[in-house]
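Regression report. Comparing outputs from two consecutive submissions.

Submission 1:
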Amino acid sequence: MKTPSGTSVGVDDPYEHVERCDHLTDNGRCRYAAEYARHDPEFAAERRADDLRCPAADPEGKWEWRDCPHFRARQRSRECIRCGLAEVRLANAEARDTRPLLEEHHLSYHDAPEADMDHEITVYLCRWCHAKVHQSWARVDDDASPDPEAVAAKEERRAREQAETGFETAAERFDTGDEE
């Protein structure tokens, strides 16, 4: 598959990387039909007639994920699906100016010629794997290790995170050098 601008997304079939639909409840019901019925009343009425059961999640159902007009799947775990690098978030003012380790990577694009629906399938890739995938030579499902630069960036963040959690008294933080 390709993006609308023609770069690779690193997969042949985005649905192979789907765990479940974001609208699916734990008991197999369609949350979209229940909460957003006004957006597609016909779809909601069909789902309500079947007790909101998701036909794609039902083992005996007649749908695949790709058959649902409102399917959406975003990766929940905050780690690169290619190399396994986990996100380390900074929780201070510095975080606003720091580029994240992980970036969302869209496996499906509704503007792409191969796409027939407006399905969002999004995973996380570290920014190093993300660049490799879009440069067309790497695949999302490659057996990859984190890039050395990625490991260094993660460890630097972890060190800053640990420094932030260290205890420092107010007197130490605001020492003005005025001693009595």
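Submission 2:
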Amino acid sequence: MKDVLYDIDWLGLLKQWWLSLLLIPFIIYHIHQVYWTLRFNIFFSISYSFPFPINLENFLVRNFLLIIHEAGHTFFGFTGNRTLTILGGSLNEIILPVIILAYFIFNKMAKGTQFGFYLLGSAWISVAFYAADGAQRQLPLIANLGRESHDWGNLLRQWDMVEQAGTFGFIFAFIGILCYLIALSVPLWMKKYEEIDLKLDV
């Protein structure tokens, strides 16, 4: 048994899995926030008490997603379609992390891919909270806008699906959590290949 333990490349395993280990506490707290928000009170989406340094990460990611959300309204507003303009904020929150993730996957960057899946999971959870609030429209909006400016409140009323707000929230949150789990598993399926230059005299 001791020989088996000595034969394990512990340094190699640490190099391969260190980011997964680092992400675990962040993911646990975010999943706990999802549970409390969707199960008990929507205000846990903005008032959940994260410990340091998870509170710092949450602040940075949440504000980054907020910026691209608002930019999405402007970008999709050029289509002239009201539904796309309203949905554009949430769409942009998802699309930009997908682009970032695709870049890392295409360039075979394992740690970047993990970050990409983590960011995408955070985006889906952000959209989940907004969608889940679509019926009650209780969350404060940017620039103190009124309830009539609630994206998902307007979308769900337009689609005659207001009663399904909680369902949308749970589905989006499930996708986000799945992205988190994929982020943790990246070292299992994404192998790093090194290029070597072979000079063969034939």
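Expected: both submissions complete independently.
Actual: both completed, but the second showed a warning that disappeared on reload.
Relevant detail on submission 2: The mean pLDDT is 91.
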